[in-house]
Amino acid sequence: MSGAIALRLLRLFDAETAHRLTIRALACGLGPRDKRADPPELAVELFGLRFPNPIGLAAGFDKNAEVPDAMLALGLGFVEVGTVTPRPQSGNPKPRIFRLEEDRAVINRLGFNNEGMERAAIRLRYRQGRPGIVGVNIGANKDASDRISDYVAAFRRLAGLASYVTINISSPNTPGLRGLQDRENLEELVRRVLDARGEAGLRAPVLVKVAPDLDAEARAAIAEIALTEAIDGLIATNTTVSRPSTLKSKHAVQAGGLSGKPLFAPSTEVLKDLYRLTRGKTPLIGVGGISSGADAYAKIRAGASAVQLYTALAYDGARLVRTIKHDLAECLRKDGLRNVMDAIGKDAVPY
Fold it and tell me: Does a cis peptide bond (omega within 30 degrees of 0) precede residue 83?
């Protein structure tokens, strides 16, 4: 069955059912594979890791670490699984994912639905020794009395099984979670996670994923903490609670986080600002609205060392990965740049 036909069939189901069917198909080995080598100019050195290309899968697709290798087989440079919480939780009531097809966007209010860190740990341990960069995105349970302790527990359990760990404090679908982006809370969270890494003798790089809805003061505080606490990287950004006036879909009124094309511009502005505020010293991963090689290139020139996508894959399918890599390489050649590293921050405001 061709990818185009499969996409059309999946559109017959609601978004969450279609996603579950996709995961099952991939777990059964029914996903496509791209065996062609990446252009050498796309390779990136980041967090002490060598990425064959800078195009990654954002957290949210493979919440339970069921199909990281199947997704790597599409030609992605890295995959981020999760969000994983210490204990299993069902998330928010259904329906909780809405396609905004006219806007090439999605709104979700899933609420960290996942099978918990023990199930994720089993799957990640099983793939140990296999090639490919697989990060894990961790969160706190909704009913946790001490959310910072939840992050520390998840980190201790999963950090030794992943290429890197992302602290997700920017989902809008767990009440109060974004408050952990406040200076005092974030400083405590980062210090406790980094202390846990040191105590356990772990080496996994630690990243923090931030919201696109931060004001200038919050961005400055996060950048300062990233520099002073030596966070390995920032991911900019998560979904947004804002609703651009340009949205056409009837689902635009739904509560939750908006992703996809409408997020591209605001997330890129946050990325560019964080690059300036961190003076280019903290590696950034750009996320939000990427659906082409030109989009990926714009994120890189804004300050990203790598990028992630998810929503565009739901609309365009696996072929998009190959297209983005090809077009990104063409963008580099057109501008006379030797590789991705040479393009990072070219359009950012001087710091």
Answer: yes
Is this prediction's pTM over 0.85?
yes
Token digits of residue 191: 């210090």
Please check whether residue 348 lies inside any domain of the structure. no
At 47-78, the pLDDT tens digits run: 999 999 999 999 999 999 999 999 999 999 99
Nearest alpha carbon to residue 317 among 2, 3, 14, 32:
3
| Intervals of the chain under pLDDT 70 | 1-5, 350-351
CA 56 to centroid of chain Cα atoms: 8
Q: SS in 3 state form for 211-248?
A: CCCCCHHHHHHHHHHHHHCCCCEEEECCCECCCCCCCC
* 292 part of the active site: no
Is residue 306 a part of any domain in this protein? Answer: yes
Hey, what are 27's tokens? 């777990």
- Is 351 within a domain? no
Domain carrying residue 121 = 3-343
Whole-angstrom Cα distance, residue 94 to residue 67? Answer: 24
Q: State the DSSP string of 99-151.
A: EEGGGTEEEE---S-B--HHHHHHHHHHTTT-SSEEEEEE---TT-S-HHHHH
- What is the predicted pLDDT for the residue at 241? 96
The answer to whether position 15 is within a domain reads yes
- Residue 35 corresponds to which tokens in the numbers above? 């065996």
For the domain that residue 110 is a member of, what is the CATH number? 3.20.20.70
CB atoms under 10 Å from CB of 223, counted, come to 22
The pLDDT of residue 334 is: 97
Q: How many domains does the chain have?
A: 1
Work out the end-to-end distance of the chain between its first and last CA atoms, rounded to an integer number of angstroms: 51
Helix H or strand E encompassing 342: helix 340-343
State the catalytic residue, choosing from 171, 259, 292, 305.
171
Q: In what order do the strands lie in the sheet with 97-100?
A: 97-100, 105-108, 257-260
The DSSP H or E segment spanning 284 is strand 284-287
Residue 210 tokens, joined? 């931030």
Please give the radius of gyration of the chain, using alpha carbons only, rounded to the nearest integer: 19
